[in-house]
Write a structure and sequence with these properties.
By secondary structure, the protein is mainly alpha-helical. The chain has one helix and no strands.
């Protein structure tokens, strides 16, 4: 898969996991690792310390990029 489709795939997986958690008792579709059949999970991980981070422990920081420029 090449850019930009590979970036959209992560969003698709996140939406699938959300729907599976909140919309179904037993989700109709599971993603599995082709090599060994293990279930795929999506995690948030800190690039500094490598620790998995819960969404409630994340803060938002604005970048210096001015997104209003044309």
């Amino acid at each position: 898969m090449s850019w930009p489709r590979s970036g959209v795939y992560g969003v698709t997986v996140a939406l699938m996991h959300w729907g599976g958690r909140w919309c179904f008792e037993d989700p109709p579709l599971h993603l599995t690792h082709a090599a060994d059949g293990g279930r795929i999970e999506q995690i948030l991980r800190c690039t500094c310390c490598g620790q998995d981070v819960d969404a409630r422990k994340i803060r938002y920081e604005q970048t210096d990029d001015d997104l209003t420029q044309e």
